[in-house]
Amino acid sequence: MHYWTNELWRLTWLVGGAGLLGWVAGEAGWGLALGLSLFVFLHLRQLRRLYVWLTRHPHQEPPTASGVWGDLFDRLYRYQKSQRNTQQRLRDIIRRVQDSSEAMRDSVVMLDRRGDLEWWNSAAEQMLGLQAAHDRGQHITNLLRSPRFIDYFNARDYREPLTLPSPIRDDLILQFQITLYGDNERLLMARDITRLHRLEQMRRDFVANVSHELRTPLTVLAGYLETYGEHAGQLPPRWQRGITRMQEQTTRMQNLVTDLLLLSRLETDHQAEQAEPVTIEPLLESIRRDAETLSGGSHVLRLEIEEERRLSGIEQEIRSAVSNLVFNAVRYTAPGSTITLGWRPWQGGAALEVVDDGEGIDPVHIPRLTERFYRVDKGRSAATGGTGLGLAIVKHVLLRHDARLEIESSPGQGALFRCAFPASRLVQAAAEPPRETNVTPITAASLRRR
């Protein structure tokens, strides 16, 4: 307000003085016009000085002036200096971020909201073959053209990383992880996991080779034990008990080797067999009969079909996955429990479900159930003869069929194991004559004890 008051006084003195002089000369109007013109001229002169300073010498000291123009020059200069300091701090931060990214052994690539390349570190040039002279502004999928990467990038579901060979070196195995930030921008990171990949491959080969080598001696041992068992009546009672125990443990070892070989094949055979439409109802009915035989009639096994479409996949692998779930339900639920096998629509696709009303599982164990040899109750699992590989096999079968395993359970409320398949895996069944079915939908109530 102080500067504006001074300007008003200056205007008053100029106009008043010029008007007084004009009045003395007998031209008061011309005197007032002259005073206003002089006031405007002074302001235009200061405005020109401001324009010249901002456009030609912005980094120099501002022009000297008095009144409101002096205050304006000072404020603009302080604001300009503050902005330069802020920009310098931001440049320093960006430089430190870039320097730290350059020091990383992992590739770091910044993408804009469209997926175009904005910046990357030197590790990305070595691992991904990016070149600053040609690739800046290119879309990432123009350079990483693997169909698996394109599907991963477009799906926008980046909770799990993607493992692929480097686009410039087949012997370099990379793990890609994308993070969304800002205005739908993406940060792509790629790690060299070649050593871990080789160690994992060595572990798989070791397990597969050992399992293959164990099959022959176990087969020989089982054959001789079976022969001795046929003549058990001629042996002392103490030897009979020993042979029975050896037969049980040999059978358990054979089951373990079989599961290890199956799991090894699922992990290493990335080229899946040709998928064919599988009619689920007869498949589940066959598994239900096998489960009845395993339970010896001590469980109630039900079949519920709500989905008419067929499933595109490998029937033997799907049978193995569902059988593991059903046989686990038979082994780990008390006699008299009800086990339901279902095929129903689910979230746009369809789901195979195995529901029991047994003791249930503490939720703390659920995230680890698909790990190899993980057991909720080690003593009870050993007593039932399980190998600890069933759910790991289920997980890998579902991965090969673009599906996922969902587990819902709590103590005393039973358990639900759901194999959820996407709509792309469903095939419309051929037209058949209508038939009557008595279907009871699976609900949350089926998880509770009856």
UniProtKB/TrEMBL annotation:
| Subcellular compartments | Cell membrane
Recorded hits in PROSITE patterns, A to Z, give:
HIS_KIN, PAS
Annotated catalysed reactions: ATP + protein L-histidine = ADP + protein N-phospho-L-histidine
Pfam families tied to this protein: HATPase_c, HisKA, PAS, PhoR
The Histidine kinase domain is annotated at: 209-425
The family database entries (InterPro entries) matched by this protein are listed as: BphY/WalK/GraS-like (IPR050351), HATPase_C_sf (IPR036890), HATPase_dom (IPR003594), His_kinase_dom (IPR005467), HisK_dim/P_dom (IPR003661), HisK_dim/P_sf (IPR036097), PAS (IPR000014), PAS-like_dom_sf (IPR035965)
Region spans: Disordered: 431-450
Quote the SMART domains the UniProt record gives. HATPase_c, HisKA, PAS
Show the stretches that span the lipid bilayer: 20-42
Q: Which GO terms describe its molecular function?
A: ATP binding; phosphoprotein phosphatase activity; phosphorelay sensor kinase activity
Which keywords accompany this UniProt record?
Answer: ATP-binding, Cell membrane, Kinase, Membrane, Nucleotide-binding, Phosphate transport, Phosphoprotein, Transferase, Transmembrane, Transmembrane helix, Transport, Two-component regulatory system
**Enzyme class, broadest EC rank:** transferase
One GO BP annotation here? regulation of DNA-templated transcription
Q: What is its main location?
A: membrane
Q: Which GO terms describe its cellular component?
A: plasma membrane
Looking at the record, the residues that make up the PAS domain are 86-131
The EC number(s) given in the record are 2.7.13.3
What role is this protein assigned? Member of the two-component regulatory system PhoR/PhoB involved in the phosphate regulon genes expression. PhoR may function as a membrane-associated protein kinase that phosphorylates PhoB in response to environmental signals.
**Protein name from the UniProt record:** Phosphate regulon sensor protein PhoR
Read off the lineage from the record.
Bacteria, Pseudomonadati, Pseudomonadota, Gammaproteobacteria, Oceanospirillales
